[in-house]
Design a protein that fits this description.
Helix content: 55-70%
Order of helices and strands: EEHEHHEHHEHEHEHEHHHHH
Distance between the termini: 60 Å
Number of helices: 13
Number of strands: 8
Strand content: 5-15%
Number of domains: 1
Strand order of the largest sheet: 4-3-8-7-5-6
Length: about 280
């Protein structure tokens, strides 16, 4: 598995993009009941505020640095550049590699119209890809009977990978609750369904490199995302700055007696100094 490093209260997987793709497909091939989270700043703040959600991230087999700030934070905190591994990029890359390896996929979430458009594109561009099935669950909590039927349908289709789009943090909680029940590797990719289906445009790569994707998403859905981007992301910056300052203080060497400005003290003088200091304290 990929090495995880801490950012705020979460542990984020690290490595090159091909390593992420290979690790996820190996989980799928093993039919391990595992799940993958794509972590952005909003998700890390959620984990900071909610210990239960923090456990959801901790139990994930892979947690990708989905947002540019999260990827940058890994580099700042741990001294090694980390590329962004966004769900919107991961979905098409995994589909292409799954087709090459003969692995099957399943789509769970969003609407029937979105799923139909996704499957049409996948079959058009990746004819070798095995699409095992898809489901568009209702936008409400399922009854125990409905949930059992959904799980049974997924397992009957027997996919290697199950892509889940229920929105954050609902999709992450769903995957954690179904670990051990769904016999596949589950991936929470959220808005990537809309983009892959061609129903939502994405910013050009140069704009994404300038960290402008959040502004574009906010422009598209101001009512839904205003609090997330203007409040939650500000809170993420504050928490990250605090962690960076604390880390800097820990790494700053403390001055030792006799070592100020390069002064080296002979052991006998140091012993006398300590004895004198001790006598002063007791007096």
């Amino acid at each position: 598995m990929l090495l995880k490093r801490p950012v705020l209260d979460a542990r984020i997987s690290t490595g090159a993009v091909p390593e992420f793709i290979d690790a996820i497909l190996r989980l799928g091939a093993a039919r391990a009941s595992a799940y993958v989270c794509c972590a952005n700043a909003h998700m890390l703040v959620e984990a900071h505020q909610d210990p239960q959600f923090r456990r959801v991230l901790d139990q994930a087999s892979v947690v990708t640095p989905d947002g540019s700030p999260v990827a940058a934070a890994l580099g700042w905190l741990h001294g090694r550049p980390q590329p962004r591994v966004a769900g919107m990029d991961l979905l098409p890359a995994l589909l292409a590699e799954a087709a090459a390896r003969g692995q099957s996929v399943y789509f769970y979430g969003t609407t029937e119209a979105v799923l139909t458009a996704m499957v049409a594109r996948a079959r058009r561009e990746l004819p070798a890809l095995r699409v095992a099935g898809w489901q568009a669950p209702p936008f409400r909590p399922l009854t125990p009977e409905e949930d059992a039927a959904a799980v049974a349908a997924i397992n009957a289709a027997d996919p290697d990978l199950v892509f889940v789009a229920l929105g954050c943090p609902r999709q992450e909680r769903w995957m954690a609750e179904h670990r051990g029940r769904v016999r596949a590797c589950m991936l929470g990719v959220g808005q990537a369904f809309m983009v892959y289906a061609g129903l939502e445009r994405r910013l050009p790569e140069w704009a994404r490199g300038l960290w402008l994707e959040w502004a574009y998403r906010l422009w598209l859905e101001p009512r839904r995302l205003a609090r997330r981007y203007l409040v939650t992301n500000t809170w993420f910056v504050w928490l990250l700055v605090r962690q960076l300052l604390a880390r800097g203080q820990q790494q700053t060497p403390r001055a030792q007696p006799g070592r100020r400005r390069g002064l080296r003290m002979h052991p006998s003088v140091l012993t006398s100094w300590r004895a004198g200091a001790l006598t002063t304290v007791h007096s």
